[in-house]
């Protein structure tokens, strides 16, 4: 008589025994991970887009705070006019800091146009850091102009504020896309699980009759769906990494860097690695939860 | 013990209605008591309500009215979450076997124990014993599709009794078998009864009943027309 535990294919038999619902075939290990991989790729792009937009927003906001300048004629260096202007600007609550741009820096900035030794006398430039981005840069520029008679106020804050608003909008759109992708992924998992339920209806009914709890049956679907979705999300995330590195390189000039000369020099370190690492885990959790909810809802029709 | 008290059953959709208004009752005013450790035949023509009655006994259905008590538990007082534990004390043999085709004989028989969370080491000995008892030890690694009808029914019987149920219900267990196989399956059911299990066997096979006299529940058109 054969000993059941020592049959020719004990490993295969044991693995099948752990999958009484046959979910390895009912929930395909190809289509669902492939669909989820595509969505994870989109999610990674949206995530990186949201983070990139946030960085641009912060940078442009910081730039806007230092972007106002007041120019005085060279003669203001004598007679205390410069000091009076600085005192007037320091007294304004909107101004966090007012300082005179040193000559060496100004020459460096103007060198492309004026050469090493400018033949013209350069104006005095006071750089202003603002306490916060003004709601109306034009009004603030008018007030500064009034506080510093004879000064020329330069402000590109209007454009910066508009760019900041645009970047914030992009950030919101990217986050909305992320939520949408997650919703679509959940819907895809729910459809796949429903198909799995339909394919294994009689086996589920049998397990139910044998005394399996809803948690047990739903848990089997949840484990399988979590594994497949997590795997798909991992693949999609891995595919997204080089794409994101390329985008980061394209965006480098906007963030004050130079484009990479070679593949190895791409800005790998600037990628949102922590968020990317979370994507497969979040995907697995999404698959598990969606499968649990779908199966438990279906099981409620059984007595 | 199994007790039915004025039980009615109707199959209805979620609305409580059938396709043409209120669904008709498939069981009406059914009342009886089966003592613990008894053996009963369940007889009646097709459509008499035998399978519905067995479905209520093994908790695959819940009554539309009346009270069903199984193994000392009143169904009306049990939460849904408490039913799985009670189901594990009931063995069921289906006419169509309901073996899982992708599992071996061993794994089909082991299924109730795995559902109950038994460890692999413990269930291995119990399943091996059940397979020896049903004469299927040599078939442990086979898939159901490679077995004869009689062998499949014995696998189903082994699965039904591997948890040593207090109640065993069998729905036409010999319906698809020849005479020799039918007698073999019935002998196993009688053996379970001898070991103290309450056994209820639904059948059309009057000849088999005549060979093994026992108390009978006789159904007709959803009513219990004779008991004894």
TrEMBL record, chain A:
GO terms for biological process: cell division. GO terms for cellular component: cell division site; plasma membrane. InterPro entries: ABC3_permease_C, FtsX. It is found in: Cell membrane. Keywords: Cell cycle, Cell division, Cell membrane, Membrane, Transmembrane, Transmembrane helix. It is a multi-pass membrane protein. Pfam families: FtsX. Residues 177-296 form the ABC3 transporter permease C-terminal domain. The chain crosses the membrane at residues 172-193, 227-248, 268-291. It comes from the Bacteria. This is Cell division transport system permease protein. It comes from Belnapia rosea.
TrEMBL record, chain B:
InterPro entries: AAA+_ATPase, ABC_transporter-like_ATP-bd, ABC_transporter-like_CS, ABC_transpr_LolD-like, MacB-like_ATP-bd, P-loop_NTPase. One of its GO terms (molecular function) is ATP hydrolysis activity. The keyword ATP-binding applies. The keyword Acyltransferase does not apply. CDD domains: ABC_MJ0796_LolCDE_FtsE. SUPFAM superfamilies: P-loop containing nucleoside triphosphate hydrolases. Residues 2-228 form the ABC transporter domain. One of its GO terms (cellular component) is plasma membrane. Keywords: ATP-binding, Cell cycle, Cell division, Nucleotide-binding, Transport. One of its GO terms (biological process) is cell division. Part of the ABC transporter FtsEX involved in cellular division. Important for assembly or stability of the septal ring. Belongs to the ABC transporter superfamily. This is Cell division ATP-binding protein FtsE.
